[in-house]
Amino acid sequence: MRRNLLLIPLLVVCGALRALGAPPAAPSHDILVPLTEEQVHAAGVETQPVEAESGVGEIVVPGVVAVPPQQLRIVAAPAAGLVETLLVAPDEDVKEGDPIATLKSSELVEAQRAFLMAMSNANLAGEKLRRDEQLFKERIIAERRLIVTRAEAAQARATLDERGQILALAGMTEAEIAELRKDRKLAASLLVRAPIAGTILQRHGTTGERVQASAPLVTIARLDPIWVNLQVPLGRAVALDSVERVHLPSAGLDGKLIRVGRTVDSATQSVTAVAEFRPGRSPLRPGQALTAILRVKGGGSSQWRVPADAVVSHLNHSWVFVRVAEGFRAVPVTLVSETPQFASVQGPLAVGERVATRGLLTLLAELAEAESK
User: What percent of the chain is helix, strand and coil (3-state, nearest 5)?
Assistant: First the structure.
C-alpha cells in the first residue's frame, strides 16, 4: 500500500521537513542515504529486485456510470394543464414517438381557437387580395390599395404560420394540425410522445397533478453507448496518455478512454477521465459505482516493475530506495501504473538492483535529514 501520508510522522521524527505550501519541483537527481549494515538490520529493511517491464501495466480506479449528455432528454409538459395519465414506468424501454402522457389543457384549447381564427383571417385576406387584383386589372382601384391589400394578406399568412408553430410547440403533430384545419374541431386533450428511443430513467410528474408549461414529466436516456466517469489520482494522471483500454471487471466489458479532465478536484486531488463503453445486454446502470482497470502500455526498457510497497511519496513526488554499498540511494521515479502487488515506474533504474520494501519509515527519515544538511 502506498505511503502517501508518511510526511506527517516524518515531521515528528526529524523535525526538519519544509512547511506546507506550494508543491516543490520534482527532484532531478539521486540522494544518498548512508546506512551501515547494522543500521539496516536494526531498522528491519528488506529489499526485492527490480524487473524490466515492456508490457501492459494497470491502474485501478473508482468510477461512476453516467449517461452522455447528448443522449439524455427531459420530456416536459408542452402546455399548462392536468396530467390525465402517465403511460410509462421507470426502467421501461420506449421507441421514438411512443405515447408518454396525456394532458387536459385549457391553453391548448385557446391555442387551437386562435389558430382557427388566424386561418379564417388568412382566408379572408386571400379572397380580398384576389378581388383587388382583379379590380386593379380592370383599372377600377388604384395601385396603392392593391399594395395595402397584399401587405394585409402577407400579415395574415404570417399570423397563421405563427399560430401553427404554437400548436406544434404545444405537442400537436402535423397530422393533428391538418385534421384541425379540416374538421375545425377543438381537442381538450394532448398526447405527449417520446422524442427519442431509450429507457425511462425517472418519472417527475404524477397522475392528477396540475402542471405548468415546461414542467418535467419524465427523463429518457439512450444507454448505448454509455460513459463511466473515472476518478484518477493526480499522481497517476501522467499515465493517462498511454492508456490502451479500460476494463470493467464487474461487467466484463472493455472500453476506451475518450476524455481527460483539465481540472483537479480540490477535495480528492483527482482528475476526472471519461471512458466509453458499448454495454449491450450488460447491466450498467446510471449512477452505479464500480471499479475500473486502466490498461497502460509499457514504455520499453526505461520502464520497471517493482513491488508496490517500494514506491513512497515524499514532498509530492514518488521515490524508491535502491540498495548500494554505502546504504541506499533515493531515486525519484514517475509512477505509471499500480496494482495492490506491483507498480510500474519510469526512472534511472537497472535490472538486478534491489529496492527497499520494508523499513521505509527509517529511510524516509534519513532522506529528510540528508536533504536538510
Answer: 30, 40, 30
Q: Find out whether 47 and 355 touch, Cβ atoms under 8 Å.
A: yes
Task: Supply the DSSP symbol for 362.
Answer: H
More confident residue, 2 or 341: 341
The three three-digit cell numbers of residue 52, written as one number = 524490466
What's the CA angle centered on 170, arms 203 and 155, to 5 degrees? Answer: 165
Tens digit of pLDDT for each residue in 100-126?
999 999 999 999 999 999 999 999 999
* Integer Cα distance of 203 and 362 in angstroms: 59
Q: At what angle do helices 174-183 and 143-169 cross, to 10 degrees?
A: 130
Residue 244: Cβ within 10 Å count: 12
Q: Cα(323)–Cα(193) distance, rounded to whole angstroms?
A: 71
| CA within 13 Å, CB half, 222 | 13
- How much of the chain, in percent, has pLDDT values that exceed 70? 90
- pLDDT tens digits along 56-86: 677 889 999 999 999 999 999 998 999 999 9
DSSP H or E run through 144: helix 143-169
| 3-class secondary structure, 261 | strand
Provide the 8-state DSSP code for 47: E
Q: Reduced to 3 states, what is the DSSP secondary structure of residue 247?
A: strand
Rounded to 5 degrees, what are φ and ψ at 369?
Answer: -70, -40
Q: Contact, 220 vs 199, CB < 8 A?
A: yes
Question: What does the longest C-alpha to C-alpha distance in the chain come to?
Answer: 124
Encode pLDDT of 18-31 as tens digits: 333 333 444 657 89
Q: How many CB atoms lie within 10 A of CB 177?
A: 17
In angstroms, what CA-CA distances link 263 with 233, 287, 347?
A: 12, 22, 27
Q: Are 116 and 182 in contact (CB under 8 A)?
A: no
Identify the CA nearest to 112 among candidates 45, 178, 26, 19.
178
Does the bond joining 225 to the residue before it have cis omega, within 30 degrees of 0?
yes
Task: Measure CA 319 to chain center.
Answer: 33
Determine the pLDDT at residue 123: 95
Torsion angles phi and psi, residue 270, rounded to 5: -130, 160
Q: What residues pair up with 270 in beta bridges, in sequence order?
A: 233
Q: Minimal CA–CA distance to 354: which of 299, 312, 304? A: 304
